[in-house]
Amino acid sequence: MSEIKQEQQHPQARKDRETLDKILAGDMTEYNLAELARLRIRYRGFPGSRDVWSDIDKVLSRWNMTEEDLFEKTREIHRKGRVYRAQDSDSEDWM
């Protein structure tokens, strides 16, 4: 018998939806690239939030990028310095 995975809502779903909506409406900036990569990592393997995954794919398609392109660009952005300069905080929001 196959196991059916139940759709779950990520604890950060509301905040992430707002971020993703801004990315969808915005341009390919360093900040948006970093946020898109962060969301891609956060939702990888998560049993739910298919709309988030789909919208991330839409942005990648619109920007003519693969996931690996995204990660390559964001690694370079992070090597240059803090992309989150305006949000000078000690807290991390990866999980």
Q: Which helices and strands appear, and what pairs or packs with what?
A:
Elements: H1 13-25, H2 30-43, H3 50-62, H4 67-80
In short:
This is DUF3288 family protein. The chain is mainly α and 95 residues long.
How is this structure best described in words?
The protein has 95 residues and is an all-alpha fold. The chain contains four helices and no strands. The protein has helices at 13-25, 30-43, 50-62, 67-80. α1 packs parallel to α3 (50-62) and α2 (30-43) crosses α4 (67-80). The longest helix is centred in the middle third of the chain and has 14 residues, at 30-43. The protein is globular, with a radius of gyration of 14 Å. It comes from Laspinema palackyanum D2a. InterPro entries: DUF3288. This is DUF3288 family protein.
Descriptors:
mainly alpha, globular, 4 helices
What is the helix tally? 4
Mean pLDDT figure: 86
Distance from first to last alpha carbon? 32 Å
- The residue fraction in helices comes out at 55-70%
Oligomer state equals single chain
